[in-house]
Amino acid sequence: MSQPRLMQGNEACVEGALEAGLQFFAGYPITPSTEIAEMLADRLPRSGGFFIQMEDEIASMAAVIGASLAGMRAMTATSGPGFSLKQENLGYAAITETPCVVVNVQRVGPSTGMPTSPAQGDVMQSRWGTHGDHPVVVLSPSSVLETYMLTVKAFAIADELRVPVILLTDEITGHMRERVVLPDPGTLPRAQRPRAGQAPPDIPPMEHFGEGRRVMVTGLYRDSTGFWTESPEEADRLVRRLAGKVESRAEQLTMVERWHLDDAQVVVVAYGCVARSAQRAVHLARERGRRVGMLRLSCLWPFPGHEIEAVAKRADCILVPEMNLGQIVGEVERAACGRCRVIGYHRVDSELIRPEELLPVLEGV
Amino acid sequence: MRFLRREYLPHIWCVGCGHGIVLGAVTRAMERAGVDQDRTVVVSGIGCSSRAVGYMNMDALHTTHGRALAFATGVKLARPDLRVVVLAGDGDLAAIGGNHLIHAARRNIGITTVCFNNGIYGMTSGQYSPLTPAGYRTTTSPFGHLERDFDLCRLVQAAGATYVARSTAYHVHQTITYVTRALSHDGFSFVEVFSPCPTYFGRNNRMGEPVKMMQWLHDGTVQAGQAARMTPEELRGRVVIGEFHRTQEVPEYARSYRDMIARLAEGGDQRAQ
Ligand SMILES: Cc1ncc(C[n+]2csc(CCOP(=O)(O)OP(=O)(O)O)c2C)c(N)n1
Ligand code: SF4
């Protein structure tokens, strides 16, 4: 067993990325993500990998895609404004099916807001930030250990499905320090990129630059040869396949934690840093004999609608606390589909939602 | 030509466009420089010129508008053993991608960049670019362009490029020579090539047939050696072409990084702890 360590969330992300085989990092400094770049600048070259501080976030995202297409496991990390800048090239990674990991340690917005306080305002930007219809996988950790686990997982999903994976953390999860015991190196599942002869029917085999395959990579719609096309049939086939390869694996990508759901009348659905407070509030309410439960989401997109549906069938009410004006609550409503009441609880004043303030809300509904 | 994907021809360019000539010069230079097409990646942004990479029979990366050099930087760092060539337009490289251009030059990363300079945004149908000369008419400068154009060669040289040259689609042999040298150069090499766009630049400025535009490239340029003997008055309104800068004294970035990795592997970390 590994030794217990006191570790920061951003540090856990670095450890997870290195465990997953990260070889290339390109980034541009922005709080509260900067520790990730600083630590990797030190660690990567020591392990034979590359760190480069690019001229901006757009360039960082571009360099990550270039390195990934040349065969390296690649990642970038940023926060709010930087994440906005990455969007165009994130779409490029999606359409070209380039595996990569983008860490967004969320901070308040819009714009520079109140740097650099926590928020959960980028949930919808993660889903719909780039133009057009595209696949997306977004993981959201609630603890330092989970940041490590989900970073490793992010690379596995990126490689297996040939998609960009977003690790959506937040200022609190990224900066908090916790005692963690990491799994032994090499024990977490890793994935390989699908190569010729091993690829599933809906994901083309990955061909890297420099292998003599003379591949053509383009952000234009392409036909089966990889060359650009203006055929409506080919366009339709491509966009549906890209969206479908993630949607059809939604259940397999679902990662939730369930507490006291069997008898719960009121269920809290939460993610990220807020889930920690929510869990405490649920615990306190249980101690007072209330029938409350909780569903914690670790994968936000694809949205685990079937899990919400199952909860909505049995509970009277779902409470969704978020540090935004309501981004996941809408998805919960959609999945609950009128089977039970759905209530949001929102804070956008840069303060973490605390257990003591959630408790009365939980008991009041 | 083994460097072209014949199955994808005909290309998308207009009749009389200079881009095909520039592409032809690039492939001939590749031939001359002994480029191994299985160990070369051509990278471009978005624009008429950027479509060139799609017709090249080697690994090709057709990226987002302006970002070719940033993508290429990732490729070059990941695989320094590969030759990385960027082919892109003046709008792509100097406007939206201007920042990446100066930083790629500053790093002296081993990428050969060929700028197809038609002085206009061709693909979006004829708006002005940072290389549209003052006074010329475009769809977004209908009364004559008020801004001055970049001297892109001086810009990248000042930023740190270690091979810099300029030619035109008219001076094909000169272009082939410069691109050949750029391909053989170890560091950031940059060749700007004037390429006529009769469809927009030509038509908006009543320059006549494509052949007339070729004549204009001939009449409007002077060779660097000759220019050195001319007065500023004689040079006014004319573009100097030639090889401007060539040095091997600056270390190439990707190699420097590899050297650092090797140093660290030997335990040679010089950092103060
Ligand atoms: C982010 C973004 N902004 C604008 C465009 C539209 N656009 C496509 S090509 C182009 C300009 C191309 O001009 P240039 O690079 O000079 O190449 P040319 O077509 O003249 O060869 C523009 C503005 C785009 N594709 N992406
Ligand atoms: S619009 Fe201009 S640059 Fe584009 S293909 Fe036609 S002539 Fe060439």
| Poorly predicted runs of 5 or more residues of chain B | none
Mean residue pLDDT of chain A: 97
Number of strands of chain A: 15
**What distance separates the N and C termini of chain B?**
57 Å
Bound molecules: thiamine diphosphate, iron/sulfur cluster
Physical arrangement of strands within the biggest beta sheet of chain B: 2-1-3-4-8-7-10-9
Q: What's the total helix number of chain A?
A: 13
What gross morphology of chain A would you assign? globular
Strand content of chain B: 15-25%
State the shape of chain B. globular
Descriptive overview:
The complex is a heterodimer of chains A (365) and B (273). With 365 residues, chain A is α/β, with parallel strands linked by helices. In chain A, 41% of the residues lie in helices and 19% in strands. In chain A, α1 packs parallel to α2 and α11 (305-314) crosses α12. Chain A is globular and about 65 Å long. Chain A starts with a strand and ends with a helix. In chain A, 53% of the residues are buried. The model of chain A has no long low-confidence stretch (mean pLDDT 97). In chain B, α1 (19-33) packs across α6 (172-184) and α4 packs across α5. By secondary structure, chain B is α/β, with parallel strands linked by helices. Chain B is globular. Chain B has an 8-stranded mixed beta sheet with strand order 2-1-3-4-8-7-10-9, sandwiched between helices. Chain B has a two-stranded antiparallel ribbon with strand order 5-6. Chain B has helices spanning 19-33, 68-78, 90-96, 98-107, 152-159, 172-184, 198-204, 210-219, 224-227, 232-235, 253-265; strands spanning 40-44, 59-62, 83-89, 111-117, 120-121, 127-128, 163-168, 189-194, 221-223, 239-246. The interface between A and B is large, with 42 and 36 residues. The structure holds thiamine diphosphate and iron/sulfur cluster (SF4). Iron/sulfur cluster (SF4) is lined by residues 13-14, 17, 19, 48, 118, 122-123, 197-200 of chain B.
